[in-house]
Amino acid sequence: MNLLPNVKVLVVDDHPLVRDGISAIVDHQDDLEVVGQAANAAEAIALFESLAPDVTLVDLGLPDMDGIGLIRILRAKSATARFIVLTAEAGGGEIAKALHAGAHAYLFKNGSSAKLFTAIRAVPTRGSYRPEAKSHLADSDRVYRFKRWRLFVDMLRVCNKEARRSRRESVRRDSSAADPTVGCRWGCATTHLRRSGAAGVLRTTTHQL
């Protein structure tokens, strides 16, 4: 027998079948109760204010507003409410944005119902449930490091190509001022990488967890 009050859940998703399916499996749990469903951000805001759910499941792709913006609005209305992003797919950047906006958990729709139930039960007391987000961000970080290294190597090739061209031009001019040490070094490639702005395009976001 469950002596604790049921966790009240609001489901926000623009696909009726998905919304009904999630609501059905969540409502089937003895300690969880779906108190409302919303197909867009406007409905979600109205239901959130009237129903005061403990946990709100938010899809990122809503027709009138993205889920991250919705979480920011709802968070401002309640300091104790919890938010779980439930989406089909997203990159590390979207996960980081959602967590920064106030999401307490980030789950994918191809995951198991058991993970969803665990997250709903965990966030009201523990404050967060982010194993999938951590794993996804770790993968994104590895991709970031690999891409940055590839860009670094490409810039190194560019530096060497420019250095060889400079030497050839100096020889043709028979310039005594030509620098015999002209060549590419790690610092040269780093300068190119910094000037390209690519180093700031992708950033490690694992620290946000």
Structure description:
The protein is an alpha/beta fold and 209 residues long. The protein has two domains: 123 residues, Rossmann fold (3-Layer(aba) Sandwich); 73 residues. It is 54% helix and 13% strand. It has seven helices and five strands, in the order βαβαβαβαβααα. Strands 2-1-3-4-5 form a five-stranded parallel β-sheet, sandwiched between helices. Strand 1, helix 1 and strand 2 form a beta-alpha-beta unit. Helix 2 runs parallel beside helix 3, helix 4 crosses helix 6 and helix 6 packs across helix 7. The chain is elongated. The C terminus is likely disordered.
**Helical residue percent band:** 40-55%
The secondary-structure class comes to alpha/beta
Task: State Rg.
Answer: 26 Å
Mean pLDDT: 78
Inertia-based shape: elongated
The biggest beta sheet is recorded as: 5 strands, parallel
What percentage of amino acids are in beta strands?
Answer: 5-15%
Low-pLDDT stretches are 136-141, 197-209
Q: Give the second-level CATH assignment, the architecture of the largest domain.
A: 3-Layer(aba) Sandwich
* Strand arrangement across the biggest beta sheet: 2-1-3-4-5
Structural domain tally: 2
Classified in CATH, the superfamily of the largest domain is Response regulator
Per CATH, what is the topology of the largest domain?
Rossmann fold
Topology as a string of helices (H) and strands (E) = EHEHEHEHEHHH
From the N-terminal CA to the C-terminal CA, the straight-line distance is 35 Å
Q: How many DSSP H or I helices?
A: 7
